Inverse folding.
């Protein structure tokens, strides 16, 4: 029992350092699921899953305050998932993500 408490207490500080995401989606009829993930103090990730029957083209824009935005693009076939990441030179406090998709 003591080992479990030690492991749990070591994992708790990791959850505290996660930065919040604000996601704006403009899917234009595409059936895309968007999931965000913090990969460290300066790296963000977005997973896009196409649940529709048609292929889609998506553009994801990562913004972190004063740094220049990072733009990533992905083509998603029906049922496909794409993982997009962006690394910044400073520590991220809040990540703003714009997702724009359209049918191909």
């Amino acid at each position: 029992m003591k080992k479990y408490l030690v492991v749990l207490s070591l994992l708790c500080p990791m959850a505290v350092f996660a930065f919040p995401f604000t996601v704006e989606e403009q899917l234009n009829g595409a059936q895309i699921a968007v999931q965000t993930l913090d990969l460290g103090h300066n790296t963000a990730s977005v997973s896009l899953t196409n649940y529709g029957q048609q292929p889609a083209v998506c553009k994801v824009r990562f913004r972190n305050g004063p740094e220049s935005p990072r733009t990533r693009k992905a083509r998603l076939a029906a049922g496909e998932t794409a993982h997009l990441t962006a690394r910044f030179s400073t520590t991220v406090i809040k990540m703003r993500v714009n997702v724009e998709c359209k049918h191909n």
Remarks:
- The mean pLDDT is 87.
- The two ends are 54 Å apart (CA to CA).
- Strands lie at 21-26, 32-38, 43-50, 56-63, 70-76, 81-87, 95-103.
